[in-house]
Amino acid sequence: MGVVYRAHDLRLQRDVALKVLPSGSINAEQRSRFRNEALALSRLNHPNIATVYDFDNQGDLDFLVMELISGVGLDEMLRAGPLPEPEALRLGIQLAQGLAAAHRQHLIHRDLKPGNLRITPDGHLKILDFGLSKILHPETPNAQTVSLHETGLVIGTLPYMAPEQLSGEPVDARTDVWASGAVLYEMAAARPPFPQPTQPMLINAILNQPPRPLSEYAPSASSAYQAVVSKALAKAAGERYQSATELLDDLQRVQTGTLTITPPRVKKPGAWRRVVLTVAAVVLALALIVGIRQIGPWKGPSALHEAQAVHSIAVLPLRNLSGDQEQEYFADGLTEELTNELARLGSLRVISRTSAMQYKTAQKSLPTIARELNVDAVVEGSVVRSGKRIRVTAQLVQAQPETNLWGESYERDVHDVLTLQREVASNIAREIRLQLTPQQQARLQSRDNPDPEAHEAYLKGLYNFYKSEPEDFLKSRTYFQQAIDHDPNYALAYAGLSSYHGATAVRGLVPPTRAFPLANVAAEKALQLDPSLAEAHLAQGAVKLMYDWDWSGAKKELTKSLELNPNYAEGHRMYSIYLRTVGDLAGSIRELRLARESDPLSADIGWSMAITLFLERDYDAAINECRRVLEIDRRYSPALYVMSDALREKGDPAGAFQQLNAALTLDEDEELRTVLLEARHVSGEGGAIKAVAQRQLQRLVRAAAKNYVPPMAFAQLYAQLGNVNAAFEWLDRAYEERSRNLLDLRLDPNFDSLRADPRFSQLLKRIGLP
User: CATH for 3-67, among 3.40.50.2000, 3.30.200.20, 3.30.70.1050, 3.30.70.2190?
Assistant: First the structure.
């Protein structure tokens, strides 16, 4: 009938669907049907029906402005198999609610089918395309039911057409009830009730034969659900539900377990009627073939859009449609694992979790997201979990031009979730014609899955590990350990536990001498169980770099992790720390740029870049990098502290004061802000900064009496205040603890006041730094 575009309403600032009839390419009947669609939809306002915003024409060009509905078609969902009965009931109820609203407006659809039903990312069903509908006048005692066979051409889609619709008899709301029954059948069985391969056979079956019992294809379907489907599919309209409201009532009773219903008795037509109907079926099939060809041109493969090459991709956060906020960890975990599966395919650039997660609640179009992440395509989808069953729906969308390249829905037992993820990754790789090496193909082959409870605990560990609050982060250790307890051979759980222990030292929560030996034990166990695990090699490399000070061993493990996962942003960041430690600042910056390609919206990577530039003493570049970080996250105070240090080193105390004040404001540190502002009036900006350092030192002394405080915090403050002996005393303590902050000692401008002292070069030799 025309072309559908994604468009943007400049006046109301929203994306819309724009249906356009091509000028001069349609006949009067098609234009009439198009106008009927506009009129019909403009009278409807229901959450389960696509909304019409406007209908107009420009010259001889007619167009319809409609709600743009993201998500996936029900037909795409059903390719992966049947829906669980609770999900089929939930969607069936929404379908009946939408139809009941339309029927109250004396409007029937006439072309209900899975392809005209779309499931939004938040799980709502939307009925699309009332373009074949007919506005029915309210019945009066003298009025006849309006026939929809005015033109002599049956309109609809064969497998979902009611018997009266096929035979050209008058139709009403019960015709939509029949189609709804066909959809309910297919949701439970993943096949239509009449799957006959040819048009004559199909028409004959719809007119004369009962569908195969639903229990044959859906043995788990309840008897109540089967009864509702049977009644909706009764061949005689008088034996069906007489309205969508009646259908809705029974579906809700099935949902609550209160329905008792007797399926309708199937009446077999007499011999003479069977002959007449069979002949009619053959004639009707021929008419359909001719009629369909008259409606519009057939589009073969040559007319289909040719997708552009996809070299980069982002997996957007899978939406949790389970109706349970507690299941967020599951959806986020599957997002990360699918991202990692794709990231291991080296020739494809895959955006890391950190950047993709920033779009979890963003109301942005897919092309906008793709442009901001600089990718060719995005994967979006949803997760529904019901008990031990999960359903994952995913679709691959090309950004420019926006094209749905692939979509699929999968239902699995929780035990098979990792197999499902590898299957999704494999399908995406195939769809974008990714050339995989034998090693990459092997990685996508099914491996033994962990115990389901172990996997759940691991996902909860990841979920809490990435949270910024310390109490949430500390929970991750409990979950990683639970995963190991459930499955002692779960390599990823050991890698997660190793990362946790290493992070506690990096965050200054526990001494390195306590944290890194535990991290090392867990990393070695992970490698023993799975030598091909990039996360395990990264964990081992971090221990060798930050605690063992084994430069060659660290390089070996970190490069191996990147060999296994070239898109590993954290791997590139850690390798950059190794390179700057051994004096290769140019190489360090190169690795951080590679990390940014995979994780462009990571404030942590930008902060690492700013620190490296500061160590290189390129203060202007460090300041610009800090500004870039603050554009990503305006509340990221570590960038303000680095900017303050860089401005101080540049000889700009006023600028350093301003950034330090901003950082303390963000951190809500009123005590130090008061010191800063009061000292400024007495000794200027430079004196104010020193006054803050003095007060911070006093606070650290009080804190160290109760909790662990990293020695390097004291060393840096004493160096800044010019107390050389005290600074070296704390540097010696940091050495005894094997503090990871000592790795930057050789380059850090904050310790310039100590460089002339022989103890400084002796300390560098003890550490083994170049």
Answer: 3.30.200.20
- Report which DSSP code applies to 749: G
Q: Which helix (H) or strand (E) element contains residue 557?
A: helix 551-564
Q: How far is CA 643 from the centre of its chain?
A: 34
Domain spans of the chain, in order of start: 3-67, 75-138+148-295, 312-449, 451-565
E strands along 316-429, which residues?
Answer: 319-320, 349-350, 377-386, 389-398, 403-413
Beta strands in 612-759 (DSSP E): none
The CA distance from 518 to 240, in Å, is 68
pLDDT at position 592, please?
96
What CATH number labels 75-138+148-295? 1.10.510.10
For the segment 408-465, what is each residue's pLDDT rounded down to a tens digit?
A: 767 777 777 777 777 788 878 777 777 666 666 666 665 567 788 898 899 899 989 9
From CA 664, how far away is CA 670, in angstroms rounded?
Answer: 7
Give the CATH superfamily of 312-449: TolB, N-terminal domain (3.40.50.10070)
User: Each residue of 164-187: pLDDT tens digit?
Assistant: 888 777 788 899 999 999 999 999
**Helical (H) or strand (E) element with 676:** helix 670-704
Query: Tokens for 729?
Result: 């005393």
Q: What is the CATH number of domain 451-565?
A: 1.25.40.10
Q: Which structure tokens are listed for 126? A: 């939307």
State yes or no: is 111 an active-site residue: yes
Structure-model confidence comparison of residues 124 and 346, the more confident one? 124
For residue 170, give the 3-state DSSP assignment: coil
Residue 302: other Cβ atoms inside 10 A: 6
Counting residues of the chain whose pLDDT is more than 90, the rounded percentage is 47
* 638 prior amide bond cis, ω within 30: no
Strands 107-108 and 134-135: antiparallel
- Pick the catalytic residue: 62, 111, 250, 530? 111
Dist CA 97 CA 86 (whole Å):
17
Collect all residues with Cβ–Cβ distance below 8 Å to 740 and sequence separation of at least 6.
505, 506, 512, 545, 546, 547
Contact 397, 405 (CB under 8 A): yes
Contacts of 716 (CB under 8 A, 6+ apart): 727, 750, 751
Question: What's the pLDDT at 183?
Answer: 96
